[in-house]
Design a protein that fits this description.
Blueprint (H helix, E strand, L loop, with lengths): L2 H14 L3 E2 L7 E6 L1 H4 L1 E7 L3 H5 L3 E6 L6 E8 L2 H17 L6
Antiparallel strand pairs: 1-2, 2-3, 3-4, 4-5
Helix pairs in contact: 1-4
């Protein structure tokens, strides 16, 4: 999988749907989140570190579990561009259904 293309797609979709996106395009890991402290919609995307996964250009996705440094274990392994597109659909869906407070 073209890891850089995958990261660019995740970052672009995240920004388009109002997520905060940390770091820059060449980072080995970055965060994509919506009001992390209120909604818990936050993901950390990292280059996979296992030998075969690294060689395949895979990415792993961690979910936020608390303080900014408190990321859970990898929940998703993005191995193909189809996996990346499915994850981007998750970002879109979560952005559309996040809780909204009434004024």
């Amino acid at each position: 999988m073209d890891r850089q293309l995958a990261k660019n797609l995740i970052r672009s979709i995240g920004e388009e749907y109002g997520y905060e996106v940390s770091g820059n395009e060449t980072d080995a890991e970055f965060d994509v989140y919506l009001a992390r402290e209120k909604h818990g919609i936050a993901f950390q995307i990292k280059n996979s570190t296992h030998d075969s996964a690294r060689q395949g250009g895979w990415l792993q996705v961690h979910h936020y579990e608390g303080e900014p440094a408190n990321w859970g274990p990898a929940l998703h392994s993005l191995r193909t561009m189809g996996d990346v597109v499915a994850f981007c659909q998750t970002l879109i869906t979560f952005a559309q259904i996040k809780s909204k407070r009434q004024a």
